[in-house]
Amino acid sequence: MRKAMFVGAIGCGKTTLIQRLHHEKISYDKTQAVEFRGEIIDTPGEFVEHRYLYPSLMTMSTGAKLIVAIQSGLDQRAVFPPAFTTMFPVQTIGVISKIDVATPQQVDYAREQLKNAGVQQIYLLSAVTGEGVAEFEQELNRLTVKDPAKL
């Protein structure tokens, strides 16, 4: 896969999902700076939570083929503003994380937040239990391969 940039609030599960995708041991690791993890760009949650850092997100997105907006099923804040995805020059897909501990109402709220941000394609998953990760990984690979003829 080519570069996918993961964006979301602090603690939404970006790094945990990357650990799951790379078959690493799951451990909490606060991302302090942009990290290049294989073909994934892991961004600090502050880049989304503080609008004055949006230019950093836009700059980092030039190295990405896909943006993955992650909203925790437990986070009942409006993390992404309306039309958030329009600032990126590439496709954005969404992930609702922590579905193993979120209620159906919390998941519905997260879905609405991602839709309001401009995301149309949304995956529900738990990086801890692995639920939904295989389907997400297949789509991630499909959307980021360098040569679609090699699928």
UniProtKB/TrEMBL annotation:
UniProtKB keywords: Nucleotide-binding
Domain of life: Bacteria
Coiled-coil parts of chain: none
Nucleotide-binding recorded as keyword: yes
InterPro entries recorded: EutP_PduV (IPR012381), P-loop_NTPase (IPR027417)
Family of this protein: Belongs to the EutP/PduV family.
PANTHER family: PROTEIN YOEF
Protein name: EutP/PduV family microcompartment system protein
Taxonomic lineage from the root: Bacteria, Bacillati, Bacillota, Bacilli, Lactobacillales
